[in-house]
UniProtKB/TrEMBL annotation:
Any one Gene Ontology BP term: methylation
Organism: Nitrospira defluvii
Name used for this protein in its record: protein-glutamate O-methyltransferase
EC number: 2.1.1.80
Keywords, ordered alphabetically: Methyltransferase, S-adenosyl-L-methionine, Transferase
Length: 287
């Protein structure tokens, strides 16, 4: 007969994140990624990290912090950490006003500039599960004036987990809900609930693991015509954001374009860019 006085593991209260440990974890995350959690975000960080404590068999946040600092598998765990502290809410054809500006303003201007080389290079920074870069690929694939042009789309993210999903190019009906029906039938295969992008479009995008806060890594990316970095800058404080925007600017060719999220601003970094109002969206042109 079981001892009724024995406390089962599942009956134990969930670990709590102390103020001191929160600050240490917050600083470690910031050091690695530039992502900053304000003092009033203790509960948010606590709730997002709890599943990782369980996965690493850590009983407390203090032991998890030590795991991140000293364990032989800490680099692998940092990758998992990136995934849980960011929100990967994305879908095909998100923020259509911006995509409209992309096709009607940015692409025609880039085509004029690059008429000699007939090549366009686009970078989807913080691409998550690939919905954004594949959307750009679909639009460009269906744009007749680009026939004969070379389209190079680089898609990067800090999380290897979401990149692995992106590389499969297989999506749910929810992710594809805004894809025009004609385009859906032309470029996707499979059942309605789960469809896969055809190789002709899938192969237009190449994926790479890149931490936007890693300056040496970003120096490898140059000569880009258009950068999409939407709904990502909101995670950073002003110092980290200024660094990242500066590095994105360096990646762009002269007069290249940066597109950020509707709810985002460049603040003090706007001296690097000329602001262009195009319809219902804002484009930033490198100066």
């Amino acid at each position: 007969m079981a001892d009724t006085n024995t406390v089962r593991k599942t009956d134990l209260p969930a670990p709590k994140l102390s103020s001191d440990t929160f600050k240490q974890l917050r600083d470690l995350v910031y050091e690695k990624t530039g992502i900053f959690f304000q003092d009033n975000k203790t509960y948010l960080l606590e709730s997002r990290l709890l599943p990782r404590l369980q996965a690493c068999r850590c009983q407390t946040f203090e032991s998890y912090l030590n795991f991140l600092r000293f364990d032989a598998y800490r680099d692998r765990e940092v990758t998992e950490l990136y995934t849980v502290i960011t929100t990967n809410e994305t879908y095909f054809f998100r923020d259509e006003a911006q995509l409209d500006s992309f096709m009607k303003v940015m692409i025609p201007e880039v085509m004029k500039t690059n008429a000699g080389t007939k090549q366009i290079r686009i970078w989807s920074a913080a691409c998550s599960t690939g919905d954004e870069p594949y959307t750009l690929a679909l639009l460009l694939r269906d744009y007749a004036p680009l026939s004969g042009w070379t389209i190079d789309i680089l898609a990067t993210d800090i999380s290897e987990n979401v990149l692995n999903i992106a590389r499969t190019a297989t999506y749910s009906s929810h992710s594809l809900r805004k894809v025009p029906p004609a385009m859906l039938s032309k470029y996707f295969t499979g059942k309605k609930e789960q469809q896969t992008l055809v190789p002709q479009v899938k192969d237009m995008v190449r994926f790479m693991n890149v931490n936007l806060y890693d300056r040496p890594r970003l120096k490898l990316i140059r000569g880009i015509d258009i950068v999409f970095c939407r709904n990502c800058l909101i995670y950073f404080d002003d110092k980290a954001k200024a660094q990242i925007v500066s590095d994105l600017r360096d990646a762009l060719r002269p007069k290249g374009y940066l597109m950020i999220g509707f709810s985002e601003t460049l603040h003090d970094t706007t001296g690097h860019f000329k602001t262009i109002h195009a319809g219902r969206s804002v484009i930033h042109e490198k100066q």
